[in-house]
Amino acid sequence: MDFWDELFGTQPDPPMAVVLVTGGAALLLVLSGESWRLARNVITIVHEAGHALTAVLVGRRLRGITLHSDTSGVTVSRGKPTGPGMVLTAFAGYTAPSLIGLGLAALMVAGKITLLLWVMTVLMLAVLVMIRNVFGVVSVVVTGAVLVTVSLVTSPQVQAAFACLVAWFLLLGGVRPVWELQAKRRRRQARDSDADQLARLTGTPGLFWVAMFALISLGAVFLGGMWLLEPVLAA
């Protein structure tokens, strides 16, 4: 089987035990302390990638992405400072991990495990081009190297388990930052957050946008989880 056949072919679903174990591991990671702080860098990469991709799609000029060691990040684009394009760009960050996790879950249930891993790898390469600081480069290169290693070196069983873990982590990991955002907003520590930028752009309260982020992230967990757990639920 050549590379293209493997990429677009269908691989066997992982055993249900693997789906359950990786889901539990992802949940523990999201609920942990120091482990979450490290893993959250991946969520930040996807968050900023969501801003960047949306900015390009709505016709804004992408200037660069900066990732910080405190797991925060900034995506800078140029264009009209108001209007639908800016609203969509600001909205895309907190929803990106959950929506990409949902897309990965769809690829998992379709048996496109190799394609899933390479989609993530291409995403890392696209982000790397726009990174503008050393920490950001290191973070993206390390993440991309892990994806490439798993895709090229490991067995199909390991690839399936890793892909399932990534899908679960993005689904579950998309929820906690929304809660953290609102906690910071209550302490008045996030005056320039995406929700507050959206509030200024639209005249709608920031809490409304936090609720929208939460609705999408929880909806993605429910739908993606149903897809991944379908064999168990159907039993």
From TrEMBL:
InterPro entries attached to this UniProt entry: Peptidase_M50B-like
Keywords: Membrane, Transmembrane, Transmembrane helix
Transmembrane segments: 14-31, 87-107, 113-131, 136-154, 160-179, 207-229
Keyword Transport: no
Superkingdom field: Bacteria
UniProt xrefs under Pfam families: Peptidase_M50B
UniProt entry tagged with the keyword Electron transport: no
Protein name per Swiss-Prot or TrEMBL: M50 family peptidase
